[in-house]
Design brief:
The chain is an alpha/beta fold. The chain has a domain at 8-84 and 162-278: P-loop containing nucleotide triphosphate hydrolases (Rossmann fold). Helix content is 32%, strand content 18%. The chain contains eight helices and eleven strands. The protein has a seven-stranded mixed β-sheet, with helices on both faces. The protein has a four-stranded antiparallel β-sheet with strand order 2-1-4-5, covered by helices on one side. Helix 8 links the parallel strand 10 (225-230) and strand 11. Helix 3 crosses helix 4 (117-130) and helix 3 (100-111) runs parallel beside helix 5. The longest helix has 18 residues, at 176-193. Bound molecules: adenosine-5'-triphosphate (ATP) and magnesium ion (MG). Residues 53-54 line the site of magnesium ion.
Amino acid sequence: MPTDALKNSTPFLKVEGLGKAFPGSPEPVFDAVNFGIHQGEFVCIIGHSGCGKTTILNVLAGLESATMGHVFMDNREVAGPSLDRGVVFQGHALMPWLTVRKNIAFAVRSKWPDWSRAQVNEHVEKYVALVGLAAAIDKKPSALSGGMKQRVGIARAFAIQPRMLLLDEPFGALDALTRGTIQDELLRICAETHQTVFMITHDVDEAILLADRILLMSNGPQARVAEIVQNTMPRTRTRATLHHDPQYYRIRNHLVDFLVARSKDLSHGRAPAQPLVVTPGLDPEPEPEPSPRSTPVVEPIPLRRIA
Ligand SMILES: Nc1ncnc2c1ncn2[C@@H]1O[C@H](COP(=O)(O)OP(=O)(O)OP(=O)(O)O)[C@@H](O)[C@H]1O
Ligand SMILES: [Mg+2]
């Protein structure tokens, strides 16, 4: 969706003043977290370990409750888990005693309890094929590689046709090659299905490849979404072409600079409650600091002697 249209429409998912304090801790892990996600948008969140990303995702999934604020999906407050939201956890969380087919069929039957066995089977086979695992459909998770298990997790989340997909570092444990292949698959499936996605990642390149917008979270305690970076590169970007676009380096430098230099200074609620929206490389250049050389030399005015 073009940026202007996004600005003017109501977000599909709205997060308002979200905060979480765990018992026994003097300060909340995060507070005043505000952002929205539009239908069909792919949003990534990046921030240092422990700032509260998984907790936010769990609150969006309805698996955990916040201590402050609200989450609305399609104008209804999220108050518990729902098959409207598909979650892919960092560990694949498959049932080890069931085959790929049965793992996914279990989720499909929960969503459509009235479907016949043949209907369920056809649906499962379609989604297993989508992630390229047709040949492994009757294998148990123990007979699959780590990357294949992750793909089963993704197929299972997609198979229930959730209105919102929530991904917690789904590729964290994969080697670079497998990761790249699955990223490409995810991009293709999202383009085909216009899926709305919220994804946690630690990998800035992954975020630039996949996300339309990247939420930058400051460090905790009292972490916040400090900035929202618009990905100004065309959606047709691929892993092979990404680094040929000068805009890639501007966005990447901005993300790395935030994580390395700025995120820690914004802990303890020093980040703005309403995140700054930035377009690295396209924002007007800030006024340069006057350097000592360019500062006009003010000649001291000689004091007149009073005769
Ligand atoms: N059940 C709990 N009780 C107390 N503290 C908790 C609980 N769950 C999480 N925390 C704390 O909340 C903070 C945020 O945890 P969370 O798992 O959301 O971080 P994260 O940003 O996902 O980190 P990572 O990048 O390492 O996955 C951490 O400091 C953690 O210790
Ligand atoms: Mg986490």
